[in-house]
Amino acid sequence: MKKIAIVYWSGTGNTEAMANAVLEGVQAAGAEGVLLTAAEFTPDLLGSFDAIAFGCPSMGVESLEDGEFEPMFQSCEPQLAGKKLALFGSYGWGDGEWMRNWEDQCRDDGAELVCQSVICCEAPDDEAAENCRKLGAALAA
């Protein structure tokens, strides 16, 4: 059975709701999902998982949250080559530039993005939640 980590940071609960939908998709596809906050995840855990879903909302000028999430993610980057990843997050304004930049960063690190990233404005609606479940299933495949 594949083991998938869903690692996220959420300030308002929107990205946390997305993480829970990703977990549902992982479990529905028959894999084991482990939900972890950015504060709970460290680079030494990367090897324990077959794939990782990282979730972070857009902050400030369309950037990753820089207090907990970005430092954790940066510490993982040297070990992302060849790792199967998927990205998700919510935003309040902008056009998704933070996600496009983050995807490029992951590709530059040598990670394999297994599906299209999922973004949604504010709280996830039914379509965004379903897309998160599909993201989870793609990681479990």
Describe, in short, the structure shown.
The protein has helices at residues 14-28, 69-76, 97-108, 126-140, and strands spanning 3-8, 32-37, 51-55, 84-91, 112-113, 118-121. It has 141 residues and is of the alpha/beta class.
Record field, number of beta strands: 6
Q: Which blocks of ≥5 consecutive residues have pLDDT under 50?
A: none
The succession of helices and strands, N to C, reads: EHEEHEHEEH
Span between termini: 10 Å
Quote the beta fraction. 15-25%
Task: Describe the protein in words.
The protein is of the alpha/beta class and 141 residues long. The chain has helices at residues 14-28, 69-76, 97-108, 126-140; strands at 3-8, 32-37, 51-55, 84-91, 112-113, 118-121. Helix 1 crosses helix 4 (126-140). It is globular. The N and C termini lie close together (10 Å).
Question: Helices, strands, pairings?
Answer:
Blueprint: E1 3-8, H1 14-28, E2 32-37, E3 51-55, H2 69-76, E4 84-91, H3 97-108, E5 112-113, E6 118-121, H4 126-140
Parallel strand pairs: 1-2, 1-3, 3-4, 4-5, 4-6
Helix pairs in contact: 1-4
Name the descriptors.
single chain, 141 residues, alpha/beta, six-stranded parallel beta sheet, 6 strands, globular
